Amino acid sequence: MSEQQISGSKLKAPIFIVGAPRSGTTLLQYMLRSHPSITIPTGESHFFIPLFRQESEYGDLRQINNIRRVLERMYQQSAHFLDTDLHGIKFDIEKLANTLHQQQPSSMAQLIAALFELNAAGENALRWGEKTPYYVLHMKLLLDKFPGAQFIHLIRDGRDCALSMFERKHDFRVYNTFFAAKYWEMYVEIGKETGREIGTANYHEIRYEDLLENPKTVMASICHFLGEDYSDSLVNFEKSGEAGKTPLLQKPIQKSNQAKWRNQMTPKQIRMFDRTVADSLRNCNYPVTTDAEALSLPIKAFWHLHNRLLTRYYKWRLPR
User: Fold this and answer.
1) Which residue segment(s) compose the domain that 204 sits in?
2) What is the CATH number of the domain that holds 211?
3) CA angle 169, 195, 292 (to 5 degrees)
4) Over the stretch 85-144, which tens digit does the pLDDT of each residue have?
5) Residue 148 covered by a domain
6) Backbone phi, then psi, for 88, in 5-degree steps?
C-alpha cells in the first residue's frame, strides 16, 4: 500500500458491527472483512469503552511512556485478541509505542485509530472496522470519539439468541427465559433508539434471518450504506480455519440456522419469552405465537431474583 493510499484511508471512518450477544455478528464480521478494501480483526476488542472512561488517567498521549501504558492496559484486558486477531501487525508493545509516538496522538481515539490503521495497512486494506457486540450500548460515545463512524446493527430473533446464550449461560449470566428475553430486549431497543437519534448516514440495521436468506442483497445494502463497491467476496467469504471459532464460519452460509426456537424451546419457554418482550419481537417483525399476556410485577420480580441468586451462586462456585 502506498503512502498516498494510507493517508487516504484516514479519511475513511471506522465501521462497527454491533448487536445483542449471539446475534450472528461473528458471521457478518467474517463476511465484511472479506471485502478487498476493509479489514476487521477476527475477535472482539472490549477495550474501547474502558479506555475512553479512563483517558484522563494516562495524561498526555503524545508522550511515549503514556502510549506504552495504554498499550500495556490493552494487553492486560485483551491479550488473546491482540495476539491472535490482529492480522496486519504483531502486537509488540515497544515497537508499537515507538511507531505510534511518531504520529503524536493527542487523544485516546486518535491512538486507537492509529493502531487499527496500522493493522489495516498491514493487510493492504483502506478501511478498518471492529466487532464487539456490546458497543451497541455506546454508539453515541463512539460516534463522538470517531466522527463519521458507521454502525451496522445486526438483529436476530431473540428466542434463537436465548437458546445460544443458554449454551454459554455462565459467560452471560443468563439463567432463565425471562432474563434472557430482557437481556435481548435491552440491546435491541437501545440500539434501535440510538440509531434513530444518530441517523441513517451513521446507522444501518439488518436482520440475521434476512442475511441468511438473501446474503447478496443484504451485503449490497451494507456496501451502499458504507459507500463501498459491492464484491462477491462478501458472500463467498474467507472461512475461519480455527476450530475454536463459531463452527458455522467453517461452512457456507446455512439458511437453516434460524427459527430453531420452534423446535428447541418448550411451550412454556416460548410463552414466557412472548409475554416478556412481545412488543420488541413485533417491532423487529418476528412472530408472536402465543397470547403474550403481560407478566405481573411479582412474576417479573421473582425471575429477576432467580437470575440474581444463580449468578451469585455460580460466581462463588465456579473456578475463576
Assistant:
1) 3-37+126-317
2) 3.40.50.300
3) 55
4) 999 999 999 999 999 999 999 999 999 999 999 999 999 999 999 999 999 999 999 999
5) yes
6) -110, -10
